[in-house]
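Notes from the 1:1 (GR / supervisor)

We went over the backlog. Supervisor wanted to see one worked example end to end before approving the batch request, so GR pasted a single chain during the call. The sequence is below; no edits were made to it. Supervisor asked that the structure be written out right there so they could see what the output format looks like.
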Amino acid sequence: METNQHIAFCGLDCMKCNAYIAKRENNDALRRQTAEEWNKIYNLNLKPDDINCDGCLTETIQNSNCTIRKCARSKGLLNCAYCADYSCEKLDKNFQTSPGCKETLDGIRARH
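Structure output shown during the call:
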């Protein structure tokens, strides 16, 4: 993993995530845009105020209901690339909408 990357448990590069960027830059327009996009893609009901993330590796995460995060933390993993059960059903479902996450985790596994 490169030192300038913050790789989430699922393989998402937080530095490229709109929720992380919106929080870091306090960008309300990006919060609105992201909420609209994610509501359509993931069939959610997010409000712009819900788009605030410090990265799922921190303790201050607002939405700790992510099943991938819960699973990886319970196993004490840096991310799912280090899991003996990689790739699981939870990840495979996530990869359908975020294929870049699979590439990232596969790359980490190849170096691991």
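Supervisor's comment: The chain has one domain: 14-111.
Batch request approved.
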